[in-house]
Each structure stands twice: as structure tokens, then as C-alpha cells.
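Allow me, if you will, to draw on your knowledge of protein folds for a short while. I have a record of one protein: its chain in single-letter code and its fold written as C-alpha cells. The full record is reproduced below for your convenience:
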Amino acid sequence: MGLWGWLFGRRRDTAAPPAAPDSSGKLIGQSLLRLEINTIIKSNMTGEPMPPLPIALLDIATEYAGKLEAFGLSEQDLARGLFPEEPGRVRSALEVREQLAPTFDRFVALRGVAQSMLVAKESTRLASPGTPGTIAAGLPSVNEVTVSRMVQNCEIILDIIKRLPRDGLLWQHLGMTRAQLQGDDSGGAAALRLGPYDISPTQFMRLRKVWDVGTEEIVAQTSISLSGDVLMRVSPLLMTAEYRGLLDIHRDAVSMSTGYWRDLMNAAVTLATVAAGALLGTPKR
């Protein structure tokens, strides 16, 4: 069955969905050849691990909807955008949260709302590019970058949902609201069995990153490949004396990650050497 099979459960005999990317685990192997370290400014941290997949997807949709409203989208426009099938119905922000379910159609609607806001923000920026000669002149604002990330992440989620087996457990749970997923919508009904779900390890990793990063601001990012290429991106915010200490935090994170990566690669080489020796009958020393 293997480690990934044990973690994610056996695949059930269902109608074959569209071919999932990385069905042979190639992308996972490739991901071990590249490190990406992000330093994020996040408020109101809870420290909780990622919940079961349908709840995690619902958390993402709810967070995105709340952030769009915080960026200036009215409550009515948000409700109309998320529920285009009922344009005449008036919903409060509380009703939107209560009726939101992480379905394919709802993420399509969420992507459309975010895309419209992104176009509006880009138009405003191009009309007044800021003070010439400053670092931020003509550059996207933090809000614009966040909305752009939301659009891209909705695309990732939609691609994953499209590949799910239609008779699988996760597909069924995506049609449920938070109350239904928690099993408290019918007078204290027992909680649902949330998993295991029929999803590839690569898809799980992609969703995990979307959930982890959320809508927070990434202020520093370092990418390191096995070929030796190193790329570091830094927000202009870290160029100020007030936030320069974040560079030290990021540097420590890079050092810790590269150390762990080195140990992992050494272990992989050792295992491969032992396996090759066993297959070729190399005598032990």
C-alpha cells in the first residue's frame, strides 16, 4: 500500500476521473529538489493544524469573501457575486457565511468577484501611478497582490475539484455548509466521517499551501534549487528600520530549512544506495 496510501486511504473502485497530475509521484520527487521559504505577516494566529479537506476549503472561501469585503466590496455586491443564481435575493454577511459551501460553482463565483475587483484596482493604479521616483510608484499595492493571489488560488482549487470522482466522499461533502459538515444542523446529529478522501498527494500539498498562506502578506521569499540557483524576493517594507528585524527571522528560517533539506537528501541517497546494493547483490561490509 505504501506510505502515501496509508496516509490518504485506498482508492475506491469508482468511475475514472480525469487523469490527476502526478499520478506516479513525479512532482513530489521534483519538489524535493527545490526549497521555498516564505516569511509572512499574520495577525490573529490560532496555531491550529489544517482541518479536514472540505472544512479547509470552506475556510479558504470564507476568508476570501471576508477579505474582498474588507477591501471595499459591499455586502450586497458580495452576496450577488457569490450567489449569481439568485440575483434578487438579499443576504447579510452572516447569511453568506452560513450558506456558503465549497462547491465548484461557488469557487467559480468567488474567482469572478475577485477578478472584477482586481481589474478595478489595476485601472485605478494605472490612472494614478503614485509619486514619481518612489519605490512604490506604478507598483501593485498589497491589496492588489492579495486579490491576484486569491484569483490564482481559486484556479488551483477549481482544477483539483474538477478531477475528483463524482461518487467520492469529498465530492459529496463539498456541497455542505459549515453547520452540515460539523453535524449540528439537525438538532445535534452525530458528526460526519470527514475522510479519508480520494485525492492525490500532490493535490493535497497544493491545497495545504493555499490554506497555510491564506490572504496574509508575504514579506520575504527565498527559493533554492538543487542546481545551486538562489532567488530571494523582499518586500520594500523590510527596507525600513522598523521591520528590518524580519530579515533576521527569514535568514534563520532559510538556515533551518536548508539544514533539514540536507539531512533529508542525505537520507534519500543512503536509502537509494542500500536499495541498489540489495538489488545488485553487493556484498555487505
Remarks:
- Residues 1-21 have pLDDT under 50 and may be disordered.
- The beta strands are 34-41, 217-225, 230-234.
- The radius of gyration is 22 Å.
